[in-house]
Structures are given as structure tokens and as C-alpha cells.
Write a sequence for this structure.
């Protein structure tokens, strides 16, 4: 990919890992931050790689049902366990097809579980 | 590349895409932010990869004529259309030769068109 | 690597390059920031790639003796010269073995020598 377009979103949600170091985790909330990177090989007829607004809208649409939610009760994220990695996998599964409709390729999903805990899923 | 040196700069400038979704865009201003990544394979005789000040100076020199400018009237950036991607291409063409004079290789130019719209050019 | 876990730490320390552009540098202090990226290929039985707390603890442990120190007097960092690159090399040598004990692979160490001067060591 020659061009990478970025987008970010945030939402508040609670979760508890089903098992952490052998014990169930206590339920707690985080401000979650999501960043995506969407690749494109060239520029379109209007002189840009992808429409920033379409990329942002894809991310916002994919995270809309997570705001103020309990991730343990989410049908996809809650299984097998609502880790930051599971959030990344589920969002990748939603966003990849969306951005491909306008010529983008999802290459990375980053999830911040609070300000200090960040994991990237490399696609 | 084993080592990557980073530098950032900002400038205020206006632009209007000549065509956006089929229509001319209204002229508007942004605070543009530029970040570059410059690679080097090893350390020099003084024990560092590249001189931070030389990298910063290359970026500042390359963006000096854009401060408070109308990007549509810029002879290079205005053609074919003053998109963030075109800003990245023109800056890459200026900065690559500069950093090569002191042993660096320009590997990425990132352009923020306002706080939320970021595109990277991978070189 | 499919998963990348991030961690950051900061410390205050002084240094002076032994030679910079042919002259000894004056001794001065910085707020140094360190960021690491630790890779993992898959998720563990508890549904996450690596334990964020173990990654953070590795970084904090590796930087503990640098807080409020003179890097020129550090037995490893001071030789051959206490550059940001040398800080990165020494921290990589400490952190790589630590994170491998819990299944991680250190892939990048970034060092900020003050707010504007950043160098990455790609492993």
C-alpha cells in the first residue's frame, strides 16, 4: 500500500475478562479508543486516495452499538471473552467489508483499553 | 532500516479541492501537521544515526513557503488538486534529496489536514 | 506478528554526547520517553495476546535505574556515548529477554530525547 488513511473513535464501555490469571476479573469501565489504518494503492480521479469522511463514517458505524454498553453481553465481543483483542477482531470483521466498498483495504486496528493499554491487530 | 528518526512541523494554509464528490469544494483553512520518518542503517562515528537538528531543519525548510498560503495557488501543490496526498507528494520530493545529503532515507511522510484527517505516504 | 502490545515510560536524566559535530556537548537534562512494541502471534487460553501488566512491568523494570541519573556515568549507556540510540540499544538488550519469558517478541524501541527528538530502533 502506498497510501494509509487513519481514523479514530472513542466509546465508554464496561467489561470483565472471564478469566485473568486464572480468576474471573471484576467488572469495570474504560474509555476505549479505536484507531484504524486503511490502505489504498493510488489516487482517484479527484486526486485523493480515499474520502476521509467515508473512512471516519465506517469506523463510527462499526462502534455505534458499543457506546455505554456491557461488552460481556455483546453477542460477538463477549465470546469467548471481551478482551481488547476480541474488540479488535470483531471491529476488523465489521470495518474490512465496509471500506472495501469504496476501494480501501483495512490493514490495522488498534484498541486502547484505557489510556495505557494498547494492542494492534495487524491484518 | 534499523533506525528511524522522526520530525514534525505545522503550518496554517487554505485550500479547496478542485472536485470533491463531483463538485468544487469551498475554500477553507486548516492547521496542517506534517510528520516525517527518515531511516538510517547504522550509527555514525559520533554514536548516533542522524543529527536530529538536520532532520528538523530539512522539514522546516521544505514547509517554509506553505505557512499562511493558499495551496491552490502553489505551483506544485495546486496541480492537479491541493489534496493532503498532493501535499505529501510534493514535500516528499523536496525532503528526500535533502536528507540523502547527510545519509538519511525518507521512508514516510504523514499529513494531517486538520486534527482528524491523516494520510501517510509510504515511500 | 499478528498482535502488537504497546507500553510507555518516562524518566528525567542528564547526558552530554562525548562528541557532537566534532565538539564535546554541554551536559543538559531531558524528560526522556520510551515506547516499546512487543509482538505475539496468537491469543492465549484466556483470550488475549499478552498481559498488559507484564509488558508495562518489563519496561518499568528496565528503566528504573535511569530516573534522575547521569547517563554519561551509566556503565552501559555511557559507552561509547550516551545518545538516544545508545539508550534504545541498552533498553532493547534488557527488555527483549524479559518479554520472551512470557511469550512476547520485542520488535521496536522508541526513544524521545525531549519532546521533539524521537528515534526508533527496529528489531
Amino acid at each position: 500500500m502506498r497510501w494509509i488513511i487513519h481514523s479514530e473513535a472513542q466509546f465508554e464501555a464496561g467489561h470483565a475478562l472471564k478469566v485473568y490469571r486464572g480468576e474471573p476479573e471484576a467488572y469495570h469501565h474504560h474509555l476505549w479508543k479505536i484507531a484504524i489504518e486503511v490502505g489504498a494503492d493510488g489516487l482517484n480521479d479527484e486526486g485523493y486516495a480515499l474520502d476521509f469522511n467515508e473512512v471516519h463514517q465506517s469506523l463510527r458505524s462499526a462502534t455505534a452499538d458499543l457506546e455505554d454498553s456491557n461488552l460481556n453481553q455483546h453477542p460477538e465481543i463477549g465470546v469467548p471473552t471481551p478482551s481488547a483483542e476480541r474488540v479488535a477482531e470483531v471491529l476488523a470483521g465489521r470495518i474490512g467489508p465496509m471500506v472495501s466498498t469504496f476501494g480501501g483495504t483495512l490493514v490495522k486496528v488498534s484498541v486502547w483499553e484505557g489510556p495505557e493499554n494498547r494492542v494492534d491487530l495487524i491484518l
About this structure: Chain A touches chain C at residues 17-21, 80-81, 83-86, 113, 116-122 (CB under 8 Å). Residues 84-100 of chain A form the longest helix (17 residues). The longest strand of chain A covers residues 3-15.
